TrEMBL record:
Lineage, top ranks: Bacteria, Bacillati, Actinomycetota, Actinomycetes, Micrococcales
Every Phosphoribosyltransferase domain range: 86-164
Assembly, per entry: Homodimer.
Entry keyword Transferase: yes
Reactions accelerated catalytically: orotidine 5'-phosphate + diphosphate = orotate + 5-phospho-alpha-D-ribose 1-diphosphate
Gene that encodes it: pyrE
Organism: Humibacillus xanthopallidus
Residues bound to orotate: T129, R157
Cofactors that this protein relies on: Mg(2+)
The protein, known as: Orotate phosphoribosyltransferase
Length: 185
């Protein structure tokens, strides 16, 4: 088994152990579900976060991009994990944060971090239901002058987000784990 395959297998184990919460919940989309995949329990976990970086970089390895980011808060630890995984591999990858709204003070930026103007970027997310958060990040990145090459998420809830992102944003949609892999489909 390769290091990447081992990282992918271990991350899946940790997600199943720590991130899947069974019971009736209301999702950010307003929809109700019988389970919740709380990936912040993973993306902010000392063992799992480095694995997130490895798995997500492997997922996007065939893409040409220079920076990763997305709508705060779900995307922030994913992007940072990828940045650190790249550095550990001797490569450079920048991360950025997309605010839900521009600041009313300071530089009044909606996107924080190294400039993405004129750069190729991947929008990342922890889990995707409706696609609204990554679509908002795609729009903000494009407004800032970036070329968005794809949206990549750790877990896809299989609720149409991929199709919506592909149709509305015109970019590839990638996910590391399906509901079936998480034991939920």
């Amino acid at each position: 088994m390769t290091d990447t395959a081992a990282a992918r297998a271990r991350l899946l184990e940790i997600i199943r152990e720590k991130a899947i919460v069974h019971g009736r919940v209301t999702l950010s989309s307003g929809k109700e579900a019988d389970y919740y995949v709380d990936l912040r329990r993973i993306t902010l976990d000392g063992e799992a976060a480095p694995l997130v970086g490895i798995v997500m970089r492997d997922l996007t390895k065939d893409l040409d991009y220079e920076a990763v980011g997305g709508l705060t808060l779900g995307a922030d630890p994913v992007a940072t994990s990828m940045l650190h995984a790249a550095a550990a591999a001797g490569e450079r990858l920048d991360a950025f944060v997309v605010r839900k709204a521009g600041k009313a003070h300071g530089l009044q930026q909606r996107i924080e971090g190294p400039s993405i103007t004129g750069r190729r970027v991947v929008i990342v997310e922890d889990t995707t239901t409706t696609g609204a958060s990554p679509l908002a990040a795609v729009e903000a990145a494009r407004e800032d002058g970036a070329t968005v090459v794809a949206v990549a998420t750790i877990a896809d809830r299989a609720t149409g987000a991929g199709e919506r992102i592909s149709e509305e944003a015109g970019v590839a949609y990638l996910h590391a784990y399906s509901l079936e892999e998480l034991g939920l489909g």
